[in-house]
Amino acid sequence: MNERMLRVLEFDKIIERLTSYAETTIGKELTKQVKPSINIEEVKQLQKETDEAVHVQRLNKTLPLGGIVDIRTSIKRAAIGGVLSTTECMDVSSTIYGGRRAKVFIENLEEDLPIIRSFVEQIAPLRELEQQINSCIDDHGHIMDSASEKLRGIRSSIRMLESRVRDRLDSFIKTQANKLSDAIITIRNDRYVLPVKQEYRGAIGGIVHDQSASGQTLFMEPKAVVDLNNQLQEATAKEKQEMNRILRDLSAQIANEEIHLEQNVQVLAKLDGMFARAKLGQSMKASMPKINNNGIINMKQARHPLIDPNQVVANDIEIGKEFTAIVITGPNTGGKTVTLKMVGLCTLMAQAGLQVPAQDGCELAVFKHVYADIGDEQSIEQNLSTFSSHMTTIVEILRHIDEDTLVLFDELGSGTDPQEGAALAMAILDEVIHRQARVIATTHYPELKAYGYNRKQVVNASVEFDVQTLRPTYRLLLGVPGRSNAFEISKRLGLPDRLIEQATSYIGMDSKSVENMITSLEKSQINAEKEYKKAHELLIEAEKIHRDLQAAWDQWENKRELLYKRAEEKAAKAIEKAREEAEIIVGELRNMKTDTKWKEHEWIEAKKMLDAAEPKLTAQQTGNQRDKKQRQQELHPGDEVKLLTANQQGSVLEKINDKEYLVQVGIMKVKVNRKDLQYIGKQQETYHQPITTIKGANYHVKTEIDLRGERVEDALLKLEKYIDDVLLAGYSRVSIIHGKGTGALRKGVQEYVKQHPRIADSRPGESGEGGSGVTVIRLK
User: Fold this and answer.
1) What is the pLDDT at residue 572?
2) Which terminal residue of the chain, N or C, has fewer Cβ atoms less than 10 Å from its own Cβ?
3) Is the pLDDT of residue 189 over 80?
4) Domain boundaries along the sequence of the chain
């Protein structure tokens, strides 16, 4: 891609915003290098990566990237034998931990994220190296005594020698206090000394290491501590040697993991950049575009990415299928250049793996070249130098364009004589179209209005202008050329009608016809868009109803299957029980036959036991027989029936034929087969007194609910049912126990409480009620 064209279309500003969303230095460095790709497979892969990251963001979950540092320089230095500092070692440990935490976060997600999971699988845990570093260096970057036994022994001797030196010097302070400037022990040249008055230098004796600015105080090391200080210096030197050895060992271990560490850094940078793209897309309310290599651009309600979302006007743009060129004509009202930049910038963003601010289902092409000749806001005084500058850029563009090129011309042919400029504009457009490139051009030349009608691959467009407010609406109208609004504007501003009529008479009939045609096209376009919007809304509503009905049907089918299964299991158990009891009865009867003392009443008791062993399925059988009779009964208008296929009740309106009836179900009239209808009874006009059940203060509901340990979604469902119960019970105040924890559950509960219409107010619990882990609500 041409760097100058990227700057013209302000792609660098998009990259600045993208970089601001990266959380690590390595991620920011990576995002700064983002460029549009011309490889369609790479673009599709980048878009899939961004979409997966957006999916995680929509779950209100954020990839943890804290503690990750750019350790690549330290790794390379360790690899060539350098010794790293304690800070550098701790950066390595922190980055290892940060990478492992990000890996665990992704692995614990239940969502389907194949691309992101493939990245985190490449992160090496390196737990042993991290533990080794942490066992030697503390959080403040100091090597700990536990780093080695030798270091522990050396530091123990250092502390002992320091104690002995201080004891000796303390005794000097107590016995020779009058000879000292101050009764303190200080350090000079890494040796413990005392501040001695100048006149007592000989009396104290020892080595002078420093003196005060006035020369009245000497910092002396008494002879009695010289040997101890020497031993202390030797021990300190040994300590430094041991610490260097420990750092050298840690550096060698880091060098051994060079490949894994560099791979971890690269993967974490990639993940940071991926989630930065997702955050940028969410901030723009963007969507994932479909990518093609056929030069097709189709965006609905697309917005310029760098304009305030509350002010920008969304537009539909389409090019590449039925036509390959768009000519936006009309007066310079300020919306044409924005449209050009929006198309170019969205194309570059899509090729860089970024989502674009447009409705779902938008489609963009991958172009090898994107060229733009867009100048600053045009001045009234156009001179030759401006024209020459534009033509120089256009000549350069024409040298490189082909079928994989998108060209954007702003005010094509401006800066010269109108007739010559219009002729040049048409010739340039012809050349670009001949080379099969995609081109969008803006112009204020009226000659180009007819250009779009005379060429099959070209479509006219304009930016709508509201004559009533004398302001552009910035809405792009495809298929409608721009028209001059001079007469309407002049009339609105108070120009006399006679002057307007006189001016109209100077215009030829052809111009009048064209203007009238454009006016008619504008009205037709606006009406068509309104009708399309209504139809689209009805379609969405119908699809929603269809989905709801389908879900209800599936639920009913599942429930029916479950009931059938339970009935079969119940019947099987009843039959098995009957069989067992029958065997017992038969055995008893056999015994009775051989028993000569049997009596009549024993036979009667045995028969009763046999009858009782019969499976109790008669009620179901009777019900089935009744249902069969009801389905065979003749139906008449007004009869109440049940639709067996939808489990809904309705009334018969009329008999269509022997097999079908027209039935009223709610607000719908449907044709139903007779076999799918069950007769209920005649329609009755009787009024049924509604029965209301009131659950009063004695209703068994607790005055508090404990939601701790619940997920936010499950907790809110329980809370909703609990509020209904306490309202029925007549409670005026209850407590919700949500705990403190991370605060997610508490925040969810508090937001739900604020929105509930039957909750008067709420407050956190007091110290005796559970504090911030409890919310107390008062009910209306």
Assistant:
1) 77
2) C
3) yes
4) 3-126+257-283, 147-238, 290-484, 531-612, 632-691, 704-779
Question: Which CATH number does 3-126+257-283 carry?
Answer: 1.10.1420.10
In the prediction, which pLDDT does 616 show? 47
User: Could you say which of 3.10.450.50, 3.40.50.300, 3.40.50.10490, 3.40.50.410 is the CATH number of the domain covering 290-484?
Assistant: 3.40.50.300
- Within 8 A by CB and 6+ apart from 52, the residues are 113, 114, 115, 116, 274
Predicted pLDDT of residue 602? 54
- Of 1-5, 148-152, 184-188, 377-381, which has the strongest mean pLDDT? 148-152
Q: Is 219 exposed, middle or buried (0-12, 13-18, 19+ CB in 10 A)?
A: buried
Q: Residue 366, SS3?
A: coil
Mean of pLDDT values over 109-130: 93
For residues 1 and 709, what is the distance between their CA atoms, to the nearest angstrom?
Answer: 54
Q: Is 413 buried (19+), middle (13-18) or exposed (0-12) by CB count in 10 A? A: buried
Sequence-distant (6+) residues with CB within 8 A of 265 are 26, 70, 71, 72, 75, 95
383-to-64, 394, 409, 446 alpha-carbon distances in Å: 57, 17, 19, 21
Please give the structure tokens belonging to residue 557. 């089918």
What is the three-state SS of 574-606? HHHHHHHHHHHHHHHHHHHHHCCCCCHHHHHHH
Which residue, chain included where needed, has tokens 């099987």?
572
**Rounded to 5 degrees, what are φ and ψ at 122?**
-80, -10
d(CA 740, CA 750): 13
Q: pLDDT tens digit string along 512-525?
A: 445 555 555 556 66
Q: What is the pLDDT of residues 254-284, one digit of tens each?
A: 999 999 999 999 999 999 999 999 999 999 9
What value, to the nearest 5°, has the Cα angle with vertex 309 and ends 307 and 312?
60
Residues 6 or more apart in contact with residue 607 via CB below 8 angstroms:
none
List pLDDT tens digits, range 537-594.
Answer: 888 888 888 888 888 888 888 888 888 788 878 877 777 777 777 777 766 666 665 5
Q: Is 294 helix (H, G, I), strand (E, B) or coil?
A: coil
Is this structure's pTM higher than 0.70? Answer: no
Residues with Cβ within 8 Å of residue 586, at least 6 apart in sequence:
none
Nearest to 287 by CA among 267, 326, 308, 314: 314
Q: Which whole-number Å values give the CA distances from 677 to 213, 556, 669, in the listed order?
A: 113, 17, 14
Sequence-ordered alpha helix ranges (H) in 435-508? 447-453, 486-492, 497-505
Supply the pLDDT for residue 692.
Answer: 42
CA separation for the pair 38, 103 (Å, rounded): 31
- Token pair 């991958």 is found at 366
- The structure tokens listed for 72 are 């690549």
Count of residues making up the chain:
780
Dig out the tokens for 434 from the structure: 């001949």
Q: Dump pLDDT digits (tens) for 438-490.
A: 999 988 777 777 777 778 888 888 877 665 665 667 778 887 766 556 666 66
Task: For strands 639-643 and 648-655, give the pairing.
Answer: antiparallel
CATH topology of domain 704-779: Ribosomal Protein S8; Chain: A, domain 1 (3.30.1370)
Task: State both tokens at 1.
Answer: 């891609």
Indicate the fold that domain 632-691 takes in CATH: SH3 type barrels. (2.30.30)
Local confidence band at 232 (pLDDT 50, 70, 90 cut-offs) = very high
Rg of the chain's alpha carbons, rounded to an integer?
Answer: 44
Higher pLDDT: 232 or 726? It is 232
> What would you measure as the largest C-alpha separation in the chain, in angstroms?
142
Half-sphere exposure of 92 (CA within 13 A, CB side): 36
- Distance between alpha carbon 119 and the CA centroid of its chain, in Å? 19
Phi, psi of 661 (to 5 degrees): -130, 150
Q: What pLDDT score does 724 carry?
A: 85
Task: Provide the mean pLDDT of the chain.
Answer: 82
The angle subtended at Cα 520 by Cα 514 and Cα 526, nearest 5°, is 135
